[in-house]
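[User] Once you have settled down, look closely at the record that follows, and write a paragraph about the fold.
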Amino acid sequence: VLARPAATHSGEGLVRLENIEALEDWLRVSHGIYYLTTFFDYRNPDGNYRKYRIIFIDREVFPYHLAISPHWIVHYVSSDMESNAWKLVEERCFLQAPQHTLGARAMVALAAIGRRLDLDYGGIDFTLLPDGRVFVFEANASMLVHRERYNGPLAEKNRHVERIVDAFEQMLVRRRAR
């Protein structure tokens, strides 16, 4: 199981307990309120875990990033994306053509999630299972989006960030016009 302290973000305090004995030992020393969820091994055949992030602006889907890591808890900052050209190529393919990377089934599911969330701004972190299903890690109204250094190895992502920012600004203009 995964044990996550209530009211935390970004994997803060998140632990993976491999068996019932580990859970019992952990419960003896842990204090507070925790969420317990079943761990699902979503590792790809290449041994890596992938976490995609989509941003919804006025319920429309915008790709933001893909993090690839050998560790089950995937964060972009710790996934060493910048040092691995193959990871950046895979992320670039996702950003340029998410429908090609994810497939039609996943894109339909993501669009449905955006409609169901019914937020002007929101996002989802997920992975893609081998059969094309979307496995959701988190969806909320406060997903981080930021520009990258314009002279750094991730600078190419900025044009996708600008699409998100532009869509958000256009939404505000439409709302003001009402």
